Amino acid sequence: MFEKNPSHALSSANSHAASAAAYSTNRFSVAPMLDWTDRHCRYFLRQLTHHTLLYTEMVTTGAIIHGKGDYLAFSEEEHPVCLQLGGSDPHDLAHAARLAEARGYDEINLNVGCPSDRVQNGRFGACLMADASLVADCIKAMKETVSIPVTVKTRIGIDEQDSYQFLCDFIGTVAERGQCDTFIIHARKAWLSGLSPKQNREIPPLDYPRVYQLKKDFPQLTLALNGGIKTLEEAKVHLTHLDGVMVGREAYQNPGMLVDVDRELFASTSSPVDCVAAVEAMYPYIERELSQGTYLGHITRHMLGLFQGVPGARQWRRHLSENAHKPGADLQVLEQALAKVSRQYRESVS
């Protein structure tokens, strides 16, 4: 379990770190989501939960090794944080993993689940399920290079290769030859052609029992479930069968669900997170980012869904949506938006 405790809206970190340490960081995580889980999003989500493992967007090895930008940038307050890599060359993946470990990432994850055409053209993502030996070589190369955990996020199958035996063969090969002990499994198969990435998240049916069975057949592995999870109650049900759950779009669109994660899933004894205080805890970060040229809207776009179901939430969203993107928008815009919902929120939780 990660031992650093960032200083932010959550209080009494030391008092509940011991109870949470009994659990793997993979017990609950927020999924890697392209264009969504950037560093601003992760910093904000960390105000709501200490122990949830946060994933970066998928970053390709080419971008990290040859790109002109800093694709590994993150804030210390984001820990625990996992870098998801896209790639299929063992040498390049090992190189990228080494750079990531040096930057302080807590975990490396290989994307073997994304079905987009662009990803397939780069020969990574879900199409790698058809070559378990290559995936094993990739994982082994990274594990021999870094000391932090290296994991795989995958599907239950691709195209017509969707039998349970195919899934077992894939997991078995990567676990044995690649020495991989942790898999996050999206409980849908992926169609590599004919469906968009969005459709691949919705049309192929979820098959939770198949993932449950996988845990029975590979009890020595750490297995986490991804796909269709919308509430912590649902997460608790899955955790009776598996070691972890990963939530994607629900956590992004309704980040308020995260305020109870530490207490409900990590046995934390901390007080409930106050969402208004979480927003206010963002102020120093926002001021720092604005001073460095970041646009306010690039940060606040991740905060729109925070007060879902609270009177005033619509006004909160509207004010940010209409004003945060304007030239020169500053912290005052966020303060004005918060004033439209803070009283109602405090009344709703009192």
TrEMBL record:
Enzyme Commission numbers on file: 1.3.1.91
Organism, as annotated: Rosenbergiella australiborealis
Site (Interacts with tRNA): N111, K198, R201, R314, R317
Entry-linked PROSITE patterns: UPF0034
Lineage summary: Bacteria, Pseudomonadati, Pseudomonadota, Gammaproteobacteria, Enterobacterales
Binding site for FMN: P32, M33, L34, Q84, K153, H186, N226, G227, G228, G248, R249
Protein name per Swiss-Prot or TrEMBL: tRNA-dihydrouridine(20/20a) synthase
Catalytic activity: 5,6-dihydrouridine(20a) in tRNA + NADP(+) = uridine(20a) in tRNA + NADPH + H(+); 5,6-dihydrouridine(20) in tRNA + NADP(+) = uridine(20) in tRNA + NADPH + H(+); 5,6-dihydrouridine(20a) in tRNA + NAD(+) = uridine(20a) in tRNA + NADH + H(+); 5,6-dihydrouridine(20) in tRNA + NAD(+) = uridine(20) in tRNA + NADH + H(+)
DUS-like FMN-binding domain sequence ranges: 30-338
